[in-house]
Amino acid sequence: MAKDPVNNLNVLSQDLLPTPQQVKNALPLTEKAQATVLQGRETVRRILDREDPRLFVVIGPCSIHDIKAAHEYAKRLKRLADEVGDTLYLIMRVYFEKPRTTVGWKGLINDPFMDDSFHIEKGLHLARELLLHLAEMGLPASTEALDPITPQYISDLITWTAIGARTTESQTHREMASGLSTPIGFKNGTDGSLTVAINALHSAARGHHFLGINQEGQCAVFRTRGNRYGHIVLRGGNGRPNYDSVSIALVEKELAKAKLPVNIAVDCSHANSNKDPAVQPLVAENCVNQILEGNRSIVALMLESHLHAGSQPIPSDLKQLKYGVSVTDPCIGWETTEKLLHSAREKLKPVLGKRKAPG
Ligand SMILES: O=C[C@H](O)[C@H](O)COP(=O)(O)O
Ligand SMILES: C=C(OP(=O)(O)O)C(=O)O
């Protein structure tokens, strides 16, 4: 057959995937898992509405690459969540999709075997299976929504969603966010720009009409209501942090001027720590001190943490991978994680209940 001279000139192949419904039939949402998700989302909504005085903390590996290590991390985090839960509401980072600055491993869904075999079907199955396990344990999960199709496979297991710094300005992601059932954090831009996140909050709060796929895998027009639980996540940018009290005061002003709720999450990693994991506890401590000194706008922290500190490149011989060490951004290790959260809890416990909402 003659080659089609018009279409798919740069497409090498296409493979059909199971539909979201088929994957869900294989891994259905159980009653226990659903209860974790519903309770998690309600808790975050209440924190954003200032009906629950706690901070929520999005914490866990930069990316999930090893299911066994993710299980071990989750087990430890659940114990810690119970210990600090009267003050801090912990949500595990369960990030399966990585937006790359240029190229690189794009996460467990895209390439679960980390060998350029790109078994996306397997990746979706593994992702859903892990999320189900965490929800069954009673541990809420968060993820970055990057591919606009992926949420149909997993979002019933997610408590909080991030839109990353590289996609906050994207209309596609704002439309998707307007329909997601979770509260949603928009990062500021990689250049530090707040405007893109503020515009994203306005856009995602409104209803949109856009294309997507339904549970049966058919193309569909989605009409959304708009997500009123959007908030900004400050991650620094352009070589400069934006978690300090002066930056926070400026963001508070911008949010108020834009008539948006003055709710701020601080990402202690990325450009706020210059990707140096040793700096993350200092950023977290600084935010805790701001709250002790009267800050009313910080409602959440994000930390990149794993079983062991640091990061490693993905070796060509995967047997050389170090267990429990990030293969993307460097993380703090478990000991630091425990210490940091216990110390934050001790300092914040006496004050959070008396904290006033922004005036
Ligand atoms: O959080 C992860 C990374 O910061 C993000 O995916 C970009 O990574 P890269 O600059 O290594 O591609
Ligand atoms: C990619 C991430 O962050 P950012 O979008 O801020 O770079 C992340 O949190 O994994």
Automatic annotation (TrEMBL):
InterPro entries per record: Aldolase_TIM (IPR013785), DAHP1/KDSA (IPR006218), DAHP_synth_1 (IPR006219)
Record's catalysed reaction(s): D-erythrose 4-phosphate + phosphoenolpyruvate + H2O = 7-phospho-2-dehydro-3-deoxy-D-arabino-heptonate + phosphate
Keyword Amino-acid biosynthesis carried by entry: yes
Pfam family for this entry, one: DAHP_synth_1
Signal peptide start-end: none
GO terms (BP aspect): amino acid biosynthetic process; aromatic amino acid family biosynthetic process; chorismate biosynthetic process
Source organism, top-level taxon: Bacteria
GO CC annotation, single: cytoplasm
Keyword Endoplasmic reticulum appears in the UniProt entry: no
SUPFAM superfamilies, per the entry: Aldolase (SSF51569)
EC category: transferase
Protein family membership: Belongs to the class-I DAHP synthase family.
Function: Stereospecific condensation of phosphoenolpyruvate (PEP) and D-erythrose-4-phosphate (E4P) giving rise to 3-deoxy-D-arabino-heptulosonate-7-phosphate (DAHP).
Protein name: Phospho-2-dehydro-3-deoxyheptonate aldolase
Biological source species: Sulfuricaulis limicola
Lineage of origin: Bacteria, Pseudomonadati, Pseudomonadota, Gammaproteobacteria, Acidiferrobacterales
